[in-house]
Amino acid sequence: MLRIAVLYFSLFVVGDQSISAQQAVIENPKKKSTALEHSIAWTVVPVGVGGGLVLQGAKGRGADEALIAIGIGIGSCGLIFGPSTGHVYAERQKPMRGAIVRVIGAGIAGLGGLGIGVASSFGNSTPSGGVALVVVGGGLLLASVTYDIATVSRSVEQYNHQRGFSTVTLRPYYFAEDKAIGSILTVRF
Q1: What three-state secondary structure class fits 145?
Q2: 36 located within any domain
């Protein structure tokens, strides 16, 4: 009896030390809906808040230029970085590629706007070059926003597949016919 007690005690002490020495790493699969929510929310909310600040600053006779500038800054950050947040959540490699494309598009559109302003100050009523740059830059920006939001679920699928989550799932289930609780194993190809 003493031997069994010593054996159990030694197993308990040794087993306890070996378990405490290992760090538990638990990864859960990422959800497509959460990634999409990140991308949409971090785009729409700053653009809405920024737009509201711009409208508030432009209201009335005396425009509040500081409020307008803050609104443009907040809205621009949301439009440029917001769509990439879902890819950051999905831990995609180089998730800010789309943001770089959007910065380039905004720069092209900004140059076009500057060209329109300069041309109109010299009396040119149809600055077609500036308008073309605004259209091209704005189109590039909007295309990149759309692409990033549309492909965020693919990034989540890649994350889950790389970690082995996408092929087999086991979840609890209630079998109504048998009035029993059980498990369902789902295999996806």
Answers
A1: helix
A2: yes
